[in-house]
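Duplicate of #3305? Posting structure anyway:
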């Protein structure tokens, strides 16, 4: 639809365009899944769907996001600065650009990780949450690279495969043991959610007094649905009715502040 088309134009509709935007956007990188999301959600499978390997074992920032040469990397360094701004001639007295490039992106990722860990348990009390649980708007709770061409049985450990080409459309060609060439492609989303946020890996982990699990909407259009509007109004009324306007005057106010 029109909204999706506009979103693609803004965020990028392929690897190079999307990387040029998000690798330089702190806010976008703060949406990455970190430790609280869990482990082993990035998988590689053979053509029959048998799992060959998975990441992360512990730390996605270290094992995936800041990898620059691994075939399963998040970011292609060559796509971060398409205008080559870091090497543009400086104006007289101008400062050298240090806010764009591989090192700057890695620092943004580390800052995003620190932010994620800092807010991991900071849910308001009480919290009322609503989220999508439908399969009709599936989300990437797990990301699967599947071998389309080549024999992974003779290609050795996927951890040691070497990247040959990245087409920027979710398809890569790698070289395994004995120079075995394999083509892999990211599979469509399979987990329940709202098309953006997966239910089990993300939304369901919210610590809330009340949770509204709903079907039939995508993330972008959630507040256009009657169910979400109703649950939001209910939540606001319940929070407002429990509000104590004299809380600031209580003895422990300064301690809590």
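Output from current build:
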């Amino acid at each position: 639809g029109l909204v999706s088309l506009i979103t693609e134009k803004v965020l990028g509709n392929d690897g190079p365009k999307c990387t040029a935007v998000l690798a330089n956007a702190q806010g976008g990188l703060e949406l990455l899944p970190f430790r609280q999301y869990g482990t082993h959600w990035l998988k590689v499978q053979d053509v029959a769907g048998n799992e060959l390997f998975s990441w992360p074992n512990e730390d996605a920032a270290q094992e995936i996001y800041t990898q620059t040469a691994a075939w399963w990397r998040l970011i292609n360094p060559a796509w971060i600065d398409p205008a080559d701004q870091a090497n543009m001639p400086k104006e007289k007295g101008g400062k050298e650009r240090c806010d764009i490039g591989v090192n700057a992106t890695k620092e943004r990722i580390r800052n995003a990780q620190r932010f994620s860990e800092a807010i991991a348990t900071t849910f308001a009390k009480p919290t009322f949450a609503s989220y999508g649980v439908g399969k009709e708007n599936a989300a990437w709770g797990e990301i699967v690279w599947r071998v389309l061409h080549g024999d992974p049985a003779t290609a050795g450990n996927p951890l040691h495969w070497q990247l040959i080409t990245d087409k920027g459309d979710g398809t890569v060609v790698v070289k395994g043991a004995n120079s075995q060439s394999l083509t892999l492609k990211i599979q469509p989303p399979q987990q329940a959610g709202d098309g953006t946020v997966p239910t089990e890996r993300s939304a369901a982990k919210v610590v809330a007094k009340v949770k509204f699990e709903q079907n039939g909407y995508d993330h972008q259009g959630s507040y256009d649905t009657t169910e979400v509007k109703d649950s939001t109004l209910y939540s606001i009324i319940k929070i407002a009715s429990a509000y104590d306007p004299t809380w600031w005057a209580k003895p422990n106010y300064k301690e809590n502040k």
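Confirmed duplicate; merging threads. The radius of gyration is 22 Å. The CA atoms of residues 21 and 70 lie 21 Å apart.
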